[in-house]
Amino acid sequence: MTLFRYREDRIPVLLFLCLFALDLTVYFLASNWWLPILWFGALIIPKGWVCSWNHNHQHLPMFRHALPNRLLEVVFGFQTGITSHAWFLHHVVGHHKNYLDQEKDESRWKRDDGTTMGEVEYSLKTALTAYPRAFRVGLEQPQHRKALRTFVGMAALQVVLLGVLFWHNWYNALFVFLLPMAVSLYVTVWATYFHHVGLETDDHNQASYNILHRGYNLMTGNLGYHTAHHSRHGLHWSKLPELHAQLARDIPAHLYRQPGIPFVWRESEAKLVLTDEQVEALASSAVSPPPKRAAAA
């Protein structure tokens, strides 16, 4: 019996579990004041990358069965601050359905008066409202009440486990778990600002920025192929480059960006315009024609 849906997920899951084992090692063994702080600072960016994989997992669970998925989501919760089914409700059945409508989008980048939020304003507002918005999506969509119950139950379990860690050693729990959870949630939301900001359109091919940087996509599970992701949000991350190639001629050449730090230190997140030759090179790498766009969840 196969445990994983896709064999490509085996190494990433092993790495997440090893990282969590290191977190626990520091939590239980660190006896000085500086090691937990050093660990917190050193792991902020890697845990930000884990957020992308948590996002992928809540679009398409990595395991075939519920129990290992829930256990993995506890690990993800401690690493990213995003608990089981929070991404599913807020992002998969919320944002993906509404991202073309800035009055409804759970990750909206417009203010109520129609002006564009700045990075910090968007990040703070979206991070602070993430869990209430996820809960509201579950309440307003009866077909997702089961997901809502899982979200509430697993969030409660996460709080209890975190409480036990604080009871045992509040100082280590603060720097190894709670602060990384809060900062990772903020960093994740901040990164999403650059996915759609300023793109007000009814055309899905013109509604997302894309990042082609190989290192960025390696560490984020191909999050840079964002138009393809919105075109078929249930498609496994390993198949997004091929779908992007199929869509390349339909994606405007100016809808590309540089990745952020640490991949690019100068002009981080800067907009790029592909040449006609670059677009054709992408399109020619496709091995099959583009599929019809699936309806959003």
UniProtKB/TrEMBL annotation:
Where is the Fatty acid desaturase domain positioned along the sequence? 32-255
Looking at the Swiss-Prot or TrEMBL record, what is one Pfam family this protein matches?
FA_desaturase
Q: Which UniProt keywords apply?
A: Membrane, Transmembrane, Transmembrane helix
Keyword tRNA-binding in record: no
In terms of superkingdom, the source organism counts as: Bacteria
Keyword Manganese present in the record's keywords: the answer is no
Position of the signal peptide: none
TM segments?
A: 12-30, 147-167, 173-194
GO BP term, pick one? lipid metabolic process
What name does UniProt use for this protein? Fatty acid desaturase
